[in-house]
Design brief:
Strands 2-1-3-4 form a four-stranded parallel beta sheet. Helix 1 runs antiparallel to helix 2 and helix 4 packs antiparallel against helix 5. It has 15 helices and four strands. The longest helix has 19 residues. The radius of gyration is 26 Å and the shape is elongated. Helices cover about 50% and strands about 10% of the residues. With about 350 residues, it is of the alpha/beta class.
């Protein structure tokens, strides 16, 4: 009885905040609960999953993106530990089936292509930190001086209310004025215009990614470097040391498949941005060198730390070999090259 009461209370709470698109899914779930079609624990997992889907819809994310998030275990609720695997599988299947039955998606066979967007924009909390100057306490004075000069410029250009352009999330940033559309609204509008022209077989959907989460997920970072992404930079947000640090640590700007747009409230702010002092305060373990060294890939052996001469010599030999092959030496030359790896084996 206690478990049933918990299910009923969770459903009631979800109904009070449910997105219109999910009303039918919640009603169907209530019927399933009444008929005891699922165990209470599974029902509670479904409700938790629907609540996260509901939040994604409220942020304007597309159905295709949400379905993939459920299937790929991107929802936090499905990354928890459960005693029963069936509990999670049944919950995911239920949610996906309900989402696929939504109007306009049922029977849809087109491909959904997610466009990864790295948004370098502050939240209103970070903007307050920047404005007060407290965020610079542990950084060189040059960073604070740069920001003060930027503020003087903004006041001269009648953009003294710049801090009012930020919201609870980076996606809430309004690039051009406090009364303009948010960056999320702008992106979604452009994507929809592209989709309406039907230039592609599938639909494009934006996927906003947090730069701090990206650098914390090595696999995702490498995929973005390799496959490409779009980086949207707010010149004022880049004055925030933590955002600046995360961006430069990602090295995304060094990869040719990365598209970058830098946005400023006025043209002179762009000119000032080019003079921005960059300061990185990183541990050795946070450097790209150390990250690559810890990977079990072909590029990992290009980075080592050593205190032994024989290891250095072996690494140099391996490096020369790799460089020769990468330079496109002919097969005839390679036949006469014998390569002994310091990691074992020969080539």
């Amino acid at each position: 009885m206690v478990a049933t009461d918990r299910v009923r209370a969770a459903l009631n709470e979800l109904e009070r905040e449910v997105h219109p698109s999910l009303v039918q899914a919640v009603e169907t779930l209530r019927s399933a609960a009444s008929a005891e079609g699922y165990p209470p624990d599974t029902l509670l997992t479904i409700i938790a999953g629907l609540r996260e889907c509901n939040a994604m819809m409220a942020r304007g994310e597309g159905i295709g993106t949400i379905i993939r998030a459920v299937g790929d275990d991107d929802l936090p609720v499905f990354r928890q530990r459960y005693e029963s695997v069936d509990q999670v599988v049944n919950a995911k299947n239920y949610i996906v089936n309900q989402l696929q039955d939504l109007p306009g998606l049922s029977g849809q066979s087109e491909t959904i292509v997610r466009i990864p967007l790295i948004l370098l924009a502050m939240t209103e909390r970070q903007a307050a930190e920047l404005r007060s100057g407290e965020v610079f306490n542990e950084y060189p004075a040059s960073l604070r001086d740069d920001f003060r000069q930027a503020c003087v410029l903004l006041e001269q250009e009648a953009v003294a209310d710049w801090f009012q352009c930020y919201g609870e999330r980076p996606e809430d940033w309004r690039p051009f004025s406090a009364g303009s559309d948010s960056i999320q609204t702008l992106v979604h509008r452009i994507i929809e215009q592209i989709n309406e022209r039907k230039r592609y077989d599938g639909r494009l959907e934006p996927e906003f990614l947090d730069i701090h989460e990206v650098i914390g997920d090595r696999h995702q970072l490498l995929r973005l470097r390799r496959s490409g992404c779009i980086v949207i930079i707010d010149v004022l947000s880049l004055r925030h040391p933590q955002i600046q640090r995360a961006y430069h640590q990602s090295l995304l700007d060094a990869y040719p498949n990365t598209s970058i747009v830098t946005i400023a409230p006025v043209a002179k702010a762009l000119e000032k941005a080019r003079e921005l002092t960059v300061f990185l305060q990183l541990r050795i373990a946070d450097l790209e060198f150390a990250k690559r060294r810890s990977e079990f890939t072909s590029s990992a052996r290009r980075c080592i730390e050593t205190w032994e001469q024989n290891m250095l010599e072996g690494w140099l030999e391996a490096g020369f070999h790799d460089t020769a092959i990468d330079s496109g030496l002919k097969e005839g030359i390679r036949k006469h090259m014998r390569y002994v790896s310091p990691y074992g084996g020969s080539g």
